[in-house]
Amino acid sequence: MRQSMMFIPTLKEAPKDAEAMSHKLLVRAGLVKQVAAGIYSYLPLGYKVIKKIETIIREEMDALGCSELLLPALQTADLWKESGRWADYGPELMRLQDRKKRDFCLGPTHEEVITFVVRDQLNSYKKLPVGLYQIQTKFRDEMRPRFALMRGREFSMKDLYTFHANEECLDEWYKLVWQAYKNIFNRCGLEVKVVFSDPGQIGGDVAHEFMVMSEVGEDTISYCNSCDYGSNTELSNLQVGDVCPDCGGSISIAKGIEVGNIFKLGTKYSKPMKATFTDKDGKDKPLIMGCYGLGVTRTLMAVVEQNNNNEGIVWPEEIKPFDYHIVCFDVKKDEQVEASMEIYQNLRKMGECLLDDRLERGVVKLKDADLIGIPVRITVGRDISEGLVEVTNRKNGKTDKVKIGEIEAYCSSL
Ligand code: ATP
Ligand code: MG
Q: How many Å lie between the centroid of ligand 2 and the Cα of residue 19?
């Protein structure tokens, strides 16, 4: 891809209201642009990374045997009245009316719709268990949209719903999804802690949150220094130095960004919405459900929050927008342009390349390259007259002079 043709509007200054480093970098590196409070456009570079995160999610969900579908964002109030949430949900629900004055909402989550979709169809124990997921835009009129993608009013979520004939089966799946979530976050380059959480608005008996430790996190969590125990302080009033309820170790407190949330819903939706199946014993019972949310755009935010340095973003391997960034230092010099093109054509066989062929000053391009954070940069400058380019590792800043004929070998050794 030629950078002169790709819309990457980098900025020298971060927006005034940006507090979190990830907010500053996402905007400055030209990944996103705010359109209104809590509403963002994902620009080409940002959307490219989002699609990579989505690919990881799809691979891990499909590996569990779940299938992807797409439910409507526009939902009728009737379904929400069936579950009781039309009255319960409060002002976070984006409500609207059609021309006939019928009530609708823009989905903040999809338990009602999915329950409607499967009821009457998943009507026998023989058809269970089933796992269905989607990656979709959600709408929530958050009281305080902030930190760019972290708390948006429109954002992207992966939501999975599972249906079971009994609690044991739900328990088993809950563990499998838990592991899949760990895989997803690890592959995105994130370290997470799993903590007990309050089921809140979604409901159910048991819930866990996946937390990225960060100062800009809006949740406070207590966790054990010795074992895996952790809980949201909404649930537990543990203090620093308290004794871990699981192992007797010592408790620490820290801020976290919630990137995922999993729930054992049980029959919270299937009962009021009459989604039943005939069990082995011939009796009709409500479906046992689990639901599992993962914030796609919030994950992008958390990744940038955890992976940056003074100069800009440092992309984790699996979600980097490009493999190689070839910077032609001065496009007015034919020699540099020709060499850049040749390297570009060759490296394209090895990975995705971004070629900075813009009519900008060389130093500006190098600053932008650090900001955008592609792992390997090949700078084609004055040294090309001696057949040399500079190859820079974004993560540690290490730069080597490499002969033009040896670039591919050098890059594959990285
Ligand atoms: P929070 O406590 O942060 O409001 P939640 O408990 O309301 O989150 P869920 O309903 O469980 O969130 O949604 C599943 C996932 O969707 C969350 O773990 C988070 O990653 C993401 N998410 C929730 N609300 C937002 C939002 N306003 N903007 C971006 N992502 C969000
Ligand atoms: Mg919320």
A: 20
> 386-395: long-range contacts at Cβ-Cβ below 8 A with a sequence spacing of 24 or more?
389/339, 389/343, 394/314, 394/315, 394/370, 395/314
- pLDDT tens for 212-269 read 999 999 999 999 999 999 999 998 889 999 999 999 999 999 999 999 999 999 999 9
CATH fold for domain 322-413 = Rossmann fold (3.40.50)
Structure tokens given for 241? 């130095």
Which residue, judged by its Cα, is nearest atom 27 of ligand 1?
A: 151
What's the gap in Å between 218 CA and the centre of ligand 2? 11
In this prediction, residue 171 carries a pLDDT of 97
**Cβ 256 under 6 angstroms from ligand 1:** no
Ligand 1 pocket test target in 40, 261, 262 with most atoms within 8 Å of CB: 261
Mind listing the pLDDT tens digit for each residue in 112-125?
A: 999 999 999 999 99
Task: Quote the pLDDT of residue 203.
Answer: 76
Q: Where in the chain are the domains?
A: 3-306, 322-413
Q: Domain 3-306: give its CATH code.
A: 3.30.930.10
Quote the pTM value: 0.97
Q: Give per-residue pLDDT as tens, 397-412.
A: 999 999 999 999 999 9
Cα separation, 202 vs 291, whole angstroms: 9
Q: State the Cα–Cα distance between residues 399 and 72, nearest whole angstrom.
A: 50
Nearest ligand 1 atom, CA 145: 27
